[in-house]
Amino acid sequence: MVGSGTCVLRGDRGPTALLFSNARSSLLIDIGPGVARKLADHCDPYGLDAMCLTHLHADHVCDLPALLFAFRNTPGAVRQKPLKIYGPIGLKKHLDLLTALHGHSIAPECGVESVELDPAGGNIELEGGMRLAWSRADHGAQPALSYRVQADGRCAAYSGDSGPCDELVDLARGADLLIAECSATDQAPLPGHLAPSQIALIAKRCAVKRLLLVHLYPESAAADPLSIIGNQYSGEALLGFDGMQIEV
Is 87 helix (H, G, I), strand (E, B) or coil? Predict the structure, then answer.
């Protein structure tokens, strides 16, 4: 867990970003402010195989030019293959605008391959035996996706920024780990986001084995969401923190 927080500027919680890795490949989901630098604490950033973006809000994407700039301009760092970036509709325009703004300084010599994913859902094979599935997330008018990562007989689903929706339930069904955003509280719901009681219901419907809460605002973390969830969901539930590592 490269980051577990939101856009709120705090030293202890950076924007939520998740690094999935096995012995053969690595996949980063989202790259908000500060993530590119913190990524180096968890892997070789220059060897990153692929990236997924849940949506294009700044707290999920704005360190992308920093990463691409580092790929092109770090002395002695040489990537051997293009960086594959998957994301929602609008990804290609976003990358075109970044190139227009920054020019070739952010164009790594190995290149970038971008893929806009069908919001109706689907799945593809990634390098290193990883399989990526996705579905539409309910984040208001903003095109947004939830993801499921499978490898070596295990799977983890990530809600991304999303309110409750049937697509998330279907995507996360039977997962070894559900990583759920917890931006809201039961007392102060937020459209396009999840509160603890909603998360507990989804986890029960999906029959997931473990639950991990991320995208925590200070208010949502302070409201003891694990106690609320524990009243409805009997599985293990964890509160995410920056630098946390979980074996699925």
Answer: strand
Distance of alpha carbon 130 from alpha carbon 127, whole angstroms = 6
pLDDT of residue 216: 97
Give the integer Cα–Cα distance in Å for 67 and 70.
5
28 burial via Cβ count (<10 Å: 0-12, 13-18, 19+): buried
pLDDT for residue 233: 97
Dist CA 157 CA 15 (whole Å): 18
Q: Please tell me whether residue 219 adopts helix, strand or coil conformation.
A: helix
pLDDT attached to residue 78: 81
Q: With contact defined as beta carbons under 8 Å apart, do 196 and 185 qualify? A: yes
What averages of pLDDT result for each successive group of 10 residues across the chain (248 residues)?
A: 97 96 94 96 93 98 96 88 95 95 87 95 93 97 97 96 98 98 97 98 97 97 97 96 96
What is the distance between the alpha carbons of residues 220 and 184, in angstroms, rounded to a whole number?
6
Look at residue 172 and give its three-state secondary structure.
Answer: helix
Residues designated as active site? 59
Alpha carbon distance 145, 88 (integer Å): 6
Instruction: Kindly report the length of the chain.
Output: 248
- Taking alpha carbons only, the member of 192, 193, 225, 190 closest to residue 211 is 225
Q: Quote the tokens at residue 136.
A: 């539409």
Going by their DSSP bridges, the two strands 131-136 and 210-214 should be labelled as unpaired
Give Cβ neighbours of residue 106 (< 8 Å, ≥ 6 apart): 65, 68, 69, 72, 98, 99
Residue of 60, 25, 32, 41 lying closest to 132 (CA atoms)? 25
